[in-house]
Structures are given as C-alpha cells and as structure tokens.
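Per reviewer request, we include the raw input and output of the structure prediction for the construct analysed in the revised manuscript.
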Amino acid sequence: MNLPRTELSDLLNKNLGKNFNDFVNGYRIEAFKEMIRNGKHHQLSVLGLAEEAGFNSKATFNRVFKKHTQMSPTEYINSL
C-alpha cells in the first residue's frame, strides 16, 4: 500500500475502530476457525493451530480468541 505505518494505523482506527493488532488478529482468528471447520484440529493441537494462524504466544492467542468470540478455543471447538 506504500503508506507509512502511522497513516495505516490512523485509517484503521478512523474507519474500522480497530488498531493494527486487532485488525491483524481478526484475520488470524478467522484462519484458526477455518482450520477447525476443515477438521485440522484432529491432526494438530489447539496451540499448533494457533501458531499456524500466526500467533506466537498461547496466552495472547487465548486472550484474543476470547475477545473475538466470547468463548475459549476449546469451548468453540466443542460448540461445533
């Protein structure tokens, strides 16, 4: 996009009401959920799926997942 980081951050804040990390983490959560829908959780652990989705920390993943879905990753999987 050739935008300075601050401009991109401002655009996200003004137009979506999200900071850059929340924006990116939303896509990561969707990637995780897609892997669950495709049955990949039968091959990898929740942490393995989180890492494949781009998270580097279990604690961060769990916090962000709960923020976006109002449930833990395990609760989400069990609800399907």
